[in-house]
Write a structure and sequence with these properties.
Strands 1-2-3-5-4 form a five-stranded antiparallel β-sheet, covered by helices on one side. It has about 120 residues and is an alpha+beta fold. Helices cover about 25% and strands about 20% of the residues. It has a single domain, classed as HIT family, subunit A. The two termini are about 20 Å apart. It contains four helices and five strands; from the N terminus they run H-E-E-E-H-H-E-H-E. The structure holds adenosine monophosphate. Adenosine monophosphate binds next to loops. The site of adenosine monophosphate has 11 residues, from loops.
Length: about 120
Amino acid sequence: MPIDPTLPYDDQNIFAKILRGEIPSKRVYEDEWAIAFHDINPQAEIHILVIPRGSYVSWDDFSAKASDEEIGGFIRAVGNVAREHDLVQPGYRLLANVGRHGGQEVPHLHIHLFGGQFLGPMIAR
Ligand code: AMP
């Protein structure tokens, strides 16, 4: 069920619990600003989720309210994860779903990082 990205942050959402270590994840990266872990239901050979440590519901919330430092740190973290997985030369895809039309289900900002194969058309028709 897609979430309403205008609602306040819910600190009981599943990614908040992963950040706090209350539920397990296959963590592949962490720094001051972000963590990354494997998606539980991968849609490509490589499917990693990168999330900021800060409490932001969506890309909208993050881009409006996060500090320049948080935004810079998070964007660099996404790039670091891709480089550490040797995805730059073959290429990869980033995706952030926002709200109902985007099909966002978890109300903590996450960037999907897909790679390890040719990823096909940008949007299914
Ligand atoms: P979105 O539709 O953009 O909100 O994507 C949410 C993603 O979170 C989906 O790709 C799910 O497979 C993934 N997901 C949900 N629960 C977990 C979990 N416990 N660990 C890892 N990934 C998860």
